[in-house]
Amino acid sequence: MARSAIIGGLAGRLAALGSAALGAAAIIAASVALPGPPALAEGPVAHRPLGPITHVVEVMLENHTFDDLFSGFPGADGIPAGTNFANPTAPGDPSSRVAALVAPANEGDVQGGLNNSRAAELKMMDRQGTTYRMDGYTLFPGEGLSAITTFAPTMDPDLQYLARHFELADRNFQPAVAPTLPNVLYALAATSHGQLTNSVPPTGSWSTIFSELSAAHEPWRIYSGVPVSVFQGTVWTRLFPAGSGANLTSATQFFTDLAGGQLPAFSFVRPGVGYSEEPPEDVGQGDTWLGQLVEAVARSRYWSSTAIFVTYDEGGGFFDHVSPPVVPGSAGYGTRTPMVIVSPWVRSGVFAKQTTNLSVLAFVQHLWGLAPLDGLNAEQNDLAGAFDFHRKPLSLPRLPVTPAETIGFYGASILADVGAALPGQALSIALQQNTAGLSLDPRVGGRVSLTLVPPAGLPAPPGFPASVVLDRGRAQLVVRFSSPGYYRLHASGRGGSEGWLTLDVGVTPNTP
User: Fold this and answer.
1) Could you give the domains of the chain?
2) Which of 151, 210, 321, 355 could disulfide-link 240, Cβ–Cβ 3.0 to 4.6 Å?
């Protein structure tokens, strides 16, 4: 995957732009066709009424495994005590082992560019007969300590709150051992037609949940945090029926539809640059946007009729200790990814049934009486068992971090993440006050305060705390750090706006 979660180097980075925003790939390339992933052992869940639910919102974030974000979650299958890995700093010493790391306060991401290709993932998962050892993440292909880094609950407080107060699925596997785009396609079409890279040809027609809903006259929309123009000429123009292109719209429109009583039956929401949580993006930034979105639904007329599914497209090269099912010659399954289910009607607690992100697809089909798209789709657990409509509904969420607006950080443009820097190198950062829909709020001026958490043992660099002044919602900052390491920047501005950015200065895969 490209270093940027949304853009990644402009030949290869346009493909990454689509993959983080909606999984779109702009480069045409062929892949070897493989069979679809194995059927889940659970089998289909019998259809039964889904109570008052008439709206489904899926918010798909980027590139984290279950262990990476929920390693110590109470009652869930987190990293077992004593788990350790080959020490990447002593590769010739089999007796030298290292435990999974917890990211410190100065580190809201890891060095970008974790290798999540199919070949790398299979090597790191390390198949041994009918299971995977899941222990090759530190040594191949140079992932090092980054791949076994976990994030403390303080780093993504909104997601952790939702998991504690609603429902966390801890047996949710990514559908294919593959990077972003194939897994997003599985989630929406139940197949990637054998394509297992981010370069899927934008040709041919696809049967998807969108075509099914259109045929059933049920409204749907795809809400994107990056400009819709990015998706022209990509596979995404083939994923919904002709004449429905206006249904691919902005994240701003989601909040407009919500407030105006126009929320469709199915909403598929994807983040913008800086908010996807894929390294090098700070997990706190995407988490705050997630909190804004869930809070808006909870305070709307739709709360009692809505099920929100927070998913991650794939594991992104991070370690997870649970071996997925092994089926020779198959495209899947890959590592576990988090799924949090938010609704007043969920059972609350840990949902321990085996699922994939296709289970959300199956839930939508169940809800509107739609046929499975293929055999794999038909065999998914449809998550109906995660709900209980015979008891008092859960209380409204009171999320810990939900500013009205956020402060976004960008590189050369709003389609570029802030890059890495070397010690002593000047790094230019663009700041932008964003609405909850991730669009510029040009009405905002005034001072933004900037505080910094440096690497352990280092003082804050000269000039921090610092500030910049927004002009029509924008400002520019130039920073320079003499010592290598991670530096976590927190911005606070007018109206309680907040933003987080981890700056990677001379870091390597083995920077703790």
Assistant:
1) 10-75+100-386 (3.40.720.10), 406-505 (2.60.40.10)
2) 210
